[in-house]
Amino acid sequence: MAIKKIGVVGAGTMGNGIAQIASQIGCDVVMRDIETRFVEGGMKNIDKFLSRSVEKGKIAADQKDEIIGRIKGTTDMAELEDVDFVIEAVIEDMDLKKEVFKELDGLVRPEVILATNTSSMSITEIAASTNRPDKMCGMHFFNPVPLMRLVEIIRGYATSDETVTITRELAEKMGKVTVEVKKDSPGFIVNRIMIPHMLEAIKIVEEGIASIEDVDTAVKNGLNYPMGPFELMDLTGIDIAYFVTEYFYKELNKESKWAAPNLLKTMVRAGKLGKKSGGGWYSS
Questions:
Q1: Which positions are annotated as active-site residues?
Q2: What pLDDT score was predicted for residue 284?
């Protein structure tokens, strides 16, 4: 099946990044969110990223205009009726995701694949809200989407081989490296490995063993990571780290190693969510 038009549900950081790279490979894109201000914010972020690319000589100004021109922002879900592939990128809330996919299932053509960008949640449970679980999979991009190379493709219980193949080919066309998660399990590959790093980093600071700055410096220089755990949480959202941790705790037998440290809870309660709130572990 030729994929010429892609629907993206969610215009936030992940959604607008996905919409951008979908347009960059020549697809028409419908990017939908619940309010006009979110849609406008998503389009503004795409324009900002592409403007920097023009300044750096990576693309020409007319290419930027063409990319933006292929993206239609909307608050009307019905605008996705004729798309060939859908990628959902709403917040990590299981009930909301089920609601979105139930609506999409009744809207788009029966053969259209529905993919979720969830970073941790059960593909099988989300797929159960549709009448096409075989055409449902995880397609987990990483932040920032235009720069990060990896996409995790996750099977739900009923996901077909054809769905995995088509999704992988689309991701590769977008210039991504893909890995297949053969079994639907919380956190898939990357977050299952990464979240313990973050939790231990927070505990080290909470116990007064080292400062935030020194933990990040140690990880970057001792493990050769490009970013420290606190820098990464500020970029991706401290609330996201908290929500994923809570999900792991619930789904993985409530093991103590997955319990959120009090300091993480305090940051979220204080609204210190990272760059998107104007401050997190670092001031900005």
A1: 119, 140, 152, 191
A2: 62
